[in-house]
Structures are given as C-alpha cells and as structure tokens.
Design a protein that fits this description.
1% strand, 2 strands, mainly alpha, 18 helices, disordered N terminus
C-alpha cells in the first residue's frame, strides 16, 4: 500500500507544487492565445502584458481587466476568457479530472493526492465521486442561471446574442469571476433596477462562494442542525457578512448623489444588497465603485479580504478562517481554553493556521499596496482597494486598470495568482510541516506580556 511519503519520494513535485505550476501553465497558454490578433476586436494584438493580465485575471477568477471584454475582444477572445474562467472556477485538477473521465483514463494515486489538496479534503476516499459531483453541480447551477438570465437578455439582445450573454454571465457569476460583455466597463450598472438579473447573479455568486462541499452538504441534509461544522461556519459567516454589508452600504450611501440618492427605496435596498454580495470575490457591480464614499470603499475592502469559503470558486482568506478567528476571540474573552462552536471543539492547530494565513495575507496586502502607492498617482484608498480586489480575486476597481504602468500590472498579476493559489498552498504546507515536526521536544515555557 502506497503512502504519501512513498509517493513524494517517487516524484519531484509535491501536490501543492503541481497545483501552482498547473495554474501558471494555463495562465501562460491563455496569455499567448489572447495576444493573438484574432483575439482582438480590431485585429491588432492587445500586447502580451495585457494578454497575460487578462489570462491571469480569468484563471484566478478575479475580473480585473485592462481591456474591455465586451468591446475590445473578438468572439474568439471572449471564448478564451470564459474557458479560462471555467477552468479556474472548477480548479486545475477538477478540470483535468473532467478530461480524464471523458477519455476513460484511470486516475492515479498521485493525481488523487493533488485532487485531495485542491478540494481541501482530509482523506482520499471518495475523491473521484466528489469530483464528479462538483462537475455536475457546477453545470446544473450554471445552466439554471443561464436560463433565468436569458429571460432578460434574449428580449434585449435577440436570441443568439442573448443566449450567449446568458451563458457567459452565468459562468462568470458562479465562478465569481466578474467578467462581463456589456461593454465600456459598465458591468451591470445599467441593470441596477432589474430584479431578475440582480437576484440571479447574486444567487450564483453566493452558491459559487459557499464551496462545493457546503453545497453538497446542504443538498443532502437540508437542515442547518444536520450540517457539518465546516458548513455551519461557512453559512453563518456568509449570512452575517451579507447582512452587515447591506445595512452598512444602505446607510452610508443613502444620500450619496453619485450612487443611491436618486433611486427609489426598493432599488436602494437591492443595490445595497448587491454591493454587499459582490465583494465576496465576484467583481460585478451595479453602482460606480469610484464614486463610493471612502467608508464604503473600506467596508468593501474588508469584505474582499475575507472573501468566499474554502474549496469554492472564490478567493480571500475565506469565511471559515474568519469564523475560526472570531470564535477564538470569543473563547479568549470568555476565559475558555477550548474554542467551542455549535457543540464542537476546534483544535488550536487549526486556529494557529487560520491566524497565520490571515497575517501573511495581511502582510502581502500591505506590502503590495505600499509598492503600488509609490508607482501609481492614485489616492491610497483606491490603491488599497485595487490590491484587496486582486488578493481576494474579486475584480472590483475604483480606477482605470488600463492606466497602470507595466510594473504595477505585474505586481497585480502576482497578487491575483497568490490570492487564487497561495492560501490553499499555505494551509497544506503548514499542515505537512506540522505532521513532520517532532512534537516530543518541548522547550521551557517563557513569560511575555501582550495587550
């Protein structure tokens, strides 16, 4: 019987390295395809750096763009984008497994180990079945979303174009990518009062951001009490963030003449709800992000930093990570040694990893923001907004990304890549390091003062 150590000895790359290299390879291929003249609407290449930026944003399901997808890219370029989004949303190994299954190829132990890490699973049992369920759930939800969107897009754009728009935006929304075909960088601002489009897109964003394991858990058990602790934490934090965000944006932007002031009360509520949902790594917007008040921009930054749930199509430090830190804080305040949640106890090793992921992500956010602030002539709140959007793989922007210098685009690309691959890789690396450490050695306890 093979073990993880035996597999590692036989291979040069660890599963986490395979994931990172796999994503990077797809980004490079996408960048090459998008740099071809045929990918541009005017028949002239958009440039390799811009192409690589677009490919990185698509594979990392971010949505930050330096060219307008709807007007600057040809049909070929748009198809490349949506294909990269689907691969990025499903995950590199899930997409590869889909090809293996279609070809009837046997999935090896090494590939199962990579799938285990990609899907954040604790063991190898049932991985192939889970992957099939992930693929099936994805296509079913995207299909329903496309059908609902077609009721609005087909009357507006005609059957062929409307159906194409419906499929594209359904995939982009469920994968939390934020790419749109509306044109002129408008996103969904022209549909701020369209209930069907708003509710459908928000539904797709939330489902994609919950994570495949949570969706399947909800489908099988139907009741909150019967869900796993992981699912309970993901749902709890998701609902809390949406409600808090909606109330905040409604109050702060209520009288803002550039966002909500001129809209009737129901549309103000709908727009506030959408603005609360979309920072969960989606990137669509129904109100102009540049005209948000600074307080609203900062709230959006916080929501983008937390992001979606583990093993989902979104980024960020993840809702469950934030939940663990929240309940750890509650336990400390109450003087408890254990982290108690819903009748369960969370180990301190998980809490340590959650804190470490958050701190490293925070350091990356601060570091990149400081570098960009030295290069780009933008207010710091907008620089922080841009960096948070890249790290959280969100795609919202409060200024024109196309105006950034080449070096800034490279920094943003690296941040998007870190946001998509980094947290998962970091968690697994910490877990492996912990398993390999010698716990039999304990040093004398030292006393320090904190707080």
């Amino acid at each position: 019987m093979f073990t993880n150590k035996m597999v590692k000895k036989r291979t040069c790359l660890s599963p986490t390295q395979v994931l990172a290299i796999g994503f990077a390879s797809i980004i490079l291929i996408g960048g090459i395809l998008l740099s071809l003249p045929v990918a541009s609407a005017n028949g002239q290449s958009i440039g390799f750096i811009n192409s690589l930026f677009e490919a990185t944003s698509a594979v990392c399901v971010t949505g930050l763009v330096v060219v307008d997808t709807g007007t600057d890219l040809s049909l070929f370029g748009q198809i490349v984008i949506i294909t990269l989004i689907q691969i990025g949303g499903l995950g590199f190994m899930t997409a590869a497994s889909l090809i293996f299954l279609a070809l009837g190829k046997r999935i090896t132990l090494r590939e199962r180990l990579v799938m285990q890490e990609a899907l954040n699973q604790f063991n190898l049992e049932g991985l192939v079945r889970l992957t099939k369920n992930v693929i099936g759930v994805t296509f079913i939800i995207e299909g329903i979303g496309a059908l609902l969107l077609s009721t609005r897009f087909i009357p507006l754009y005609g059957f062929k174009k409307g159906l194409y728009y419906s499929i594209f935006h359904a995939i982009s929304a469920f994968c939390n990518a934020g790419f749109d075909l509306i044109g002129n960088y408008r996103s969904l601002t022209g549909f701020v009062d369209d209930v069907v489009i708003n509710m459908t897109v928000m539904g797709l964003i939330i489902l994609g951001g919950l994570g495949f394991s949570v969706i399947l858990d909800i489908w099988h058990h139907r009741r909150f009490k019967k869900l796993s602790l992981h699912s309970k934490l993901a749902v709890f934090m998701t609902v809390m963030l949406i409600l808090i965000g909606t109330a905040f944006f409604f109050i702060v932007e209520y009288n803002n003449p550039y966002t909500l002031a001129d809209k009737p009360l129901p549309i103000k509520i709908l727009a506030s709800l959408f603005q609360s949902v979309t920072p969960r790594t989606a990137g669509f917007n129904t109100i102009d992000q540049a005209n948000l008040k600074d307080a609203s921009k900062f709230m959006t930054i916080l929501l983008m930093f937390i992001g979606a749930s583990p093993a989902s199509t979104g980024g960020g430090i993840k809702t469950v990570t934030a939940s663990v830190i929240f309940f750890l804080t509650v336990s400390v305040v109450r003087g408890r040694d254990d982290i108690q949640v819903y009748g369960k106890r969370i180990s301190h090793s998980i809490a340590h990893r959650a804190i470490t992921i958050t701190l490293i992500s925070l350091m990356l956010l601060i570091g990149v923001s400081m570098v960009l602030s030295l290069i780009e002539p933008q207010p710091f709140i907008d620089i922080l907004f841009e960096t948070s959007s890249a790290l959280g793989t969100v795609g919202l922007a409060s200024f024109d990304n196309g105006s950034m210098s080449t070096i800034s685009k490279i920094f943003v690309m690296l941040t998007m890549f870190a946001g998509r691959v980094g947290p998962l890789t970091l968690t697994l690396a910490l877990a492996n390091r912990q398993n390999q450490s010698d716990n039999s050695i304990r040093y004398p306890e030292g006393k320090v003062m904190v707080g």
